[in-house]
Amino acid sequence: MPSNSPPHEGQKVFPPFEILYDRYHMQIYRYLYTHLKNEQDTADLLQHVFLQAWKHAQSYDPRRGSIATWLLSIARNRLIDFYRVSHSSLSWETIPDITSMEQNPEVRVISQETIAQVRKMLEALHQTEQELLALRFAARLSSAEIAPLIGKSEAATKKQLTRLLHRLQEQYRRDVLEELLPELLEPALPAFVEALLQTYVAPIESAHLNVIRQNLLKLVHTVSF
């Protein structure tokens, strides 16, 4: 009888489907939306990613990475398939702890005023650099989780992310802060990280995500293993 518990070996490490979706769906959604810039396409691929993951739960090996990393590898492959069919190209540590940074009013104002400039900076990056930032800031993966996805060591991944972020900070300071707040360059630098985070915000209504969740639950219960 179909169940919402995963099959075989996956049962040892996988939570029930509801928990799996609730825990990881926003990471996957933000990552997909970063590339697709379209809510409907993102929602469709999100469903495909979780359904594929559930069908192949037995193939997940925790020794090769976290569940988040495994789900992101599925999401990346689905993106590649999507663009292959549509004949489009992908749009677009010592890194600061972006989840714990406190935001002051000055930073919030700067972020809102400069979000367009930051987006332009990101769009000008090489595709591999865009992907690194999407995995870090949209999917919110750690360097250790990103490393297997891009085929590098954790140390090399952290170094590449750090250098990229520092380079972007300097460009941000030259292009934005010197024009807006020349007397507050150093104190205002955290505004770049906040603006970067806001660039990766994916617009989605909670009601829409609940519909996706319910659709997936129905599909999961029809999957036979």
TrEMBL record:
<dbReference type="InterPro" id="IPR013324">
    <property type="entry name" value="RNA_pol_sigma_r3/r4-like"/>
</dbReference>
<keyword id="KW-0804">Transcription</keyword>
<keyword id="KW-0238">DNA-binding</keyword>
<dbReference type="InterPro" id="IPR013325">
    <property type="entry name" value="RNA_pol_sigma_r2"/>
</dbReference>
<dbReference type="InterPro" id="IPR014284">
    <property type="entry name" value="RNA_pol_sigma-70_dom"/>
</dbReference>
<feature type="domain" description="RNA polymerase sigma-70 region 2">
    <location>
        <begin position="20"/>
        <end position="84"/>
    </location>
</feature>
<dbReference type="InterPro" id="IPR039425">
    <property type="entry name" value="RNA_pol_sigma-70-like"/>
</dbReference>
<keyword id="KW-0731">Sigma factor</keyword>
<comment type="similarity">
    <text>Belongs to the sigma-70 factor family. ECF subfamily.</text>
</comment>
<dbReference type="InterPro" id="IPR007627">
    <property type="entry name" value="RNA_pol_sigma70_r2"/>
</dbReference>
<dbReference type="GO" id="GO:0006352">
    <property type="term" value="P:DNA-templated transcription initiation"/>
</dbReference>
<dbReference type="GO" id="GO:0016987">
    <property type="term" value="F:sigma factor activity"/>
</dbReference>
<dbReference type="Pfam" id="PF04542">
    <property type="entry name" value="Sigma70_r2"/>
</dbReference>
<keyword id="KW-0805">Transcription regulation</keyword>
<protein>
    <recommendedName>
        <fullName>RNA polymerase sigma-70 region 2 domain-containing protein</fullName>
    </recommendedName>
</protein>
<dbReference type="GO" id="GO:0003677">
    <property type="term" value="F:DNA binding"/>
</dbReference>
<dbReference type="InterPro" id="IPR036388">
    <property type="entry name" value="WH-like_DNA-bd_sf"/>
</dbReference>
